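Entry 14. Structure prediction run on the chain below.
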Amino acid sequence: MSAIEFSLQQKEQIIIKLQKYFLKELDSELEQFDADFLLDFIAKEMGVFFYNKGLYDAQAILNEKLDTISDAIYEIEQPIP
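Output returned:
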């Protein structure tokens, strides 16, 4: 897996969320520079867990849809005399 990278706009949005979280939940200011490093750390060290969870969720949805398609095909199958 390649490194998780965000666009500049995405990164700014995530950093703002981190800063708001730190202020609200930890009563601590997280400066832009520190927030940027924290985001890089989270992406590098924990991103793979979120990435894999997304893959597993997508696979589960795909399997459900394939089961539905298989059932629909079975329903229209013609009997062999």
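DSSP finds two helices and no strands in the chain.
Filed with the rest of this week's runs.
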